[in-house]
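go over whats below:
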Amino acid sequence: MNRNILRSVALVAVVAVTLAGRSRAAESAAPQPVQLQWLGQAAPAMPEGVSWGVPWPRGAVQRSDSFALRAADGMAVAMQTWPLAFWPDGSIKWSGHAIAAPAGLAGPLQISIGATVAPATPIKTTTTADVIEIDTGAVRARFVRQGSALLESLFVGDRRVAENARLIALREDRSEESKGVLRQEQFVSRIKSVTLEQSGPVRAVVKVEGVHQAVAGERAWLPFTVRFYFYAGSPEIRLVHTFIFDGDGQKDFIKGLGLVFTVPFREELHNRHVRFAGDGTGVWCQPVRLLPGYRLQVGRLITDNYADHLAGKRMPNLADYPPAVRSAIESVAVYNDYKLTQLGPDGFAIAKRTQRQSSWLHVTNGRRALGLAVLGDVSGGLAVGVKDFWQKHPAALEVSHAAQAAGELTVWLWSPDSPAMDLRTYDTGPHGLSINYEDWKPGWGTAEG
């Protein structure tokens, strides 16, 4: 796997633009083209949506102006533009821009006042009182304005690749800790509002706001905002998650915080696959039911194609194998659940199990996982990547119900395999700053925010 899959790319203005100290005549003149370059001088290795901002001199760019973007070879690039800030005279001080960058789009690029080019496949948005739908040409996403699902369904063509994306939270109840009893209380997202925050030919943004509601109980807490970013012609969706801790740091301990996607299956067990990206270029791969390609007695039909099986290519259905081979396949264990946990900065572990009534089996270890998980079958599936995954420890990626009609892919932003989030101060009383390097005072140690 190429590390660039999880690399964040961005364009930056590399030609300085003077914001002050210009004459009135210079301010009214059309600004010079601004040169842009990829951070790290590296163009994206795969198609990727990119957004950035550019500062402008006072009076140089008006609200009615449009922008043109050209690649190093002179090719016009479709771009969406919006104002971010204004000078006192009403001219644009900062402009925001977005492109759906194709793989290998080399810099430097140049942005200037000029006619905007429309994308070949502009984004289509549909808004009703109950639903918002986004169609990028590569994926279709459907949002409903109430319930628990942040993203109701996601389609590639006519294939539903994910549905019922929801937030989950676990609270550790320590009210009977003195008796050695710890309990967990479960919460799930409850939607309060869904807004089409930006709608354009290149980029669309959907904002979902709500709270975490107790599954068994009345409590609602941990307000959240989740934004979904879509780009024209791209199957990639960027998601930014924010939550506010509004609990009591003395007794509200977050044991788990995550985002769950339901992934429907169409294929038989041996044609379903799980992938975890490790560190470096390593990817851990396993079919839900591993064909016994290491046993010669199953015949050449499997052994000659075993590498294709591990690579995720389609293998014949059970009915297409001879009875003896089919019987051998059906004797192989089916693994229903998988997880990669990064509980610290210097180590991750992968484990799997056949069912909830069975033990977890340790598979392998590594140092710093890149943070990508894939769940699907040979007809398609869902890949989820977390930026700066290992730095956000304790984090985890978990697959469950892989042997059922629909599996679940969970991104744990706080892994329940780690100790609960403890927001209490490190001591119960203050210490003098004349001796101690740092300290807190009563009223300064609240965890809210």
Remarks:
- The two ends are 38 Å apart (CA to CA).
